[in-house]
Amino acid sequence: MTPETTTAERASTIAASIKLRPRCFVFWKLFIFDHKEIY
């Protein structure tokens, strides 16, 4: 495997996971952002 292939596969896997769980991704993003605002 070349580094380019590994990076592409990793990026596609992350993109797929975000597409499969967009609500969870947005939830955690807002959750972390809210905690940064609070503390």
Structure description:
With about 40 residues, the protein is mainly α. The chain has one domain. Helices cover about 90% and strands about 0% of the residues. The protein has two helices and no strands. The protein has helices at about 5-20, 20-39.
In short:
The protein has two helices and no strands. By secondary structure, the chain is mainly alpha-helical. 0% of the residues are buried.
Q: Could you give the topology of this structure?
A:
Layout: H1 3-20, H2 22-38
The chain-level structural class is mainly alpha
Give the mean pLDDT. Answer: 71
Low-confidence stretches: none
Total strands:
0
User: Count of DSSP helices?
Assistant: 2
Helix fraction by DSSP (H/I, runs of at least 4): over 70%
Beta-strand content: under 5%
Regarding quaternary structure, what we see is: single chain
Q: List the helices and strands in order.
A: HH
Shape, please? elongated
**Largest sheet composition:** none
Rg of Cα set: 14 Å
**Count of the separate structural domains:** 1
Distance between the termini: 44 Å
Structural features:
39 residues; mainly alpha; elongated
